[in-house]
Amino acid sequence: MSTAPMPEFPTGFRWGVSTSAYQIEGAADTDGRGPSIWDTFAHTPGRIIDGSSGDVACDHYHRYAEDVALMAGLGVSAYRFSIAWPRVLPSGTGQVNPAGLDFYERLVDELLAHGIDPVATLFHWDLPQPLEDAGGWLNRDTAHRFAEYADVVATRLGDRVRLWITLNESFIHMSLGHATGVHAPGRMLLFDAFPVAHHQLLGHGLAVAALRARSTSPVAIANNYSPVRVVGGSQADAAAGAAYDALHNQLFTDPLLGRGYPAELDFDTAAVRDGDLDVIAAPIDVLGVNYYNPTAVRAPEEGSPLPFELVPLTGYPRTAFDWPVVPEGLRELLGWLRDRYGRALPPIQVTESGCAYDDAPDADGQVPDADRIAYLDGHLRAVRAAIDDGVDVTGYFVWSLLDNWEWAEGFTKRFGLVHVDFRTGQRTPKSSYAWLREVIATARRAPR
């Protein structure tokens, strides 16, 4: 961690924390909520490393007021949360569940009462199971059902949500959920998963129109990005790097900003119909950037079904997830977005940035996490450097407020600024919470 003072951030810079519904809410059988693909996946033996599920998670559904008080104590100006589609529309379509909407209304009103902007993500991977049974994101109809859901939520909350995010990390949901089967719904389609990409993007475009019809708040999407580091000096290695870059970093951004699908990707585009790309390219107000680490790539072995091979990126500290800690990669990424998309690029907010470490209370009940402090310090400095480079970055959200249920890793990875005892639900702010509170307070005190 640098010993130099944290540089100043622009006036109005949005300081936030992020979570997602299935990872923290619990209350799986409460208020008429229907099943999601993650309920099904988590209850399938062998899918989750510790055999756990999100049935209770952090019990945020019942403890949301306590969690909002933690945000207020931290001093954040925004909270990025996700709305559980099956809590609002248990079948994914048709009959609305008013009790589910009531919960999100209580949460939004509690945030506003504490001066915190509600930033609502409509889809953070928890597709209603009945829609999956009908084909899920492989089925074009799901895009239209997503727009219907967006309309329902915006009708109730459109006057109070301050920023809408349609989809979270569509690349990750496609690749881990539908290409390799590591995440729900567990499909293993490899490159035949392209319709999942297209239908998510189509659903985004349709949802943008639905949100704008019901709300005057800005609209965004949150994409996962990973700068590519080519390992090896051959033409085949370079080609592998280009292919992975197109897949991970361009596939879900080029169409959004009017460039169509990357020519480098050899997909069967039968799912794309006339007019779809115009719907997908509906103007957005903010691009959400989720960044964790770069990806090292080299040419694959002969006979591989993929045009690249992912290899460890060495020479950096590593998190408990064994991810390399590379703050300069965030500055590199933000500059790449500026250079590639130019005037088509809207303002950026870093909607996820964080790290997992094996945090535990000490003998005094404190939770020291110096590694997380160093991580956040480096990444915030990278954002400030990107702003100095001319990139329009207007916010930074830490992943995550709470230790949570970490998908296929269950309860084995802790990302939170706040430690959660998963047996009792007790919340204990870590040392990183106190550090960030002072960073935010100092930023607000700085002369302008």
UniProtKB/TrEMBL annotation:
PROSITE patterns the UniProt entry points to: GLYCOSYL_HYDROL_F1_2
Active site residues according to the UniProt entry: 169 (proton donor), 352 (nucleophile)
UniProt-listed Enzyme Commission number(s): 3.2.1.21
An example Gene Ontology CC term for this record: cytosol
Reaction equation(s) it catalyzes: Hydrolysis of terminal, non-reducing beta-D-glucosyl residues with release of beta-D-glucose
Pfam families (alphabetical): Glyco_hydro_1
Annotated keywords: Carbohydrate metabolism, Cellulose degradation, Glycosidase, Hydrolase, Polysaccharide degradation
Domain of life per record: Bacteria
A molecular function (GO) term: beta-glucosidase activity
InterPro entries xrefs: GH, GH_1_N_CS, Glyco_hydro_1, Glyco_hydro_1_beta-glucosidase
Positions of substrate binding: 23, 124, 168, 292, 399, 406-407
UniProt signal peptide: none
GO biological process, one term: cellulose catabolic process
Similarity annotation: Belongs to the glycosyl hydrolase 1 family.
Family matches, as PANTHER family: GLYCOSYL HYDROLASE, LP05116P
Record's protein name: Beta-glucosidase
Originating species: Micromonospora sediminimaris
High-level lineage: Bacteria, Bacillati, Actinomycetota, Actinomycetes, Micromonosporales
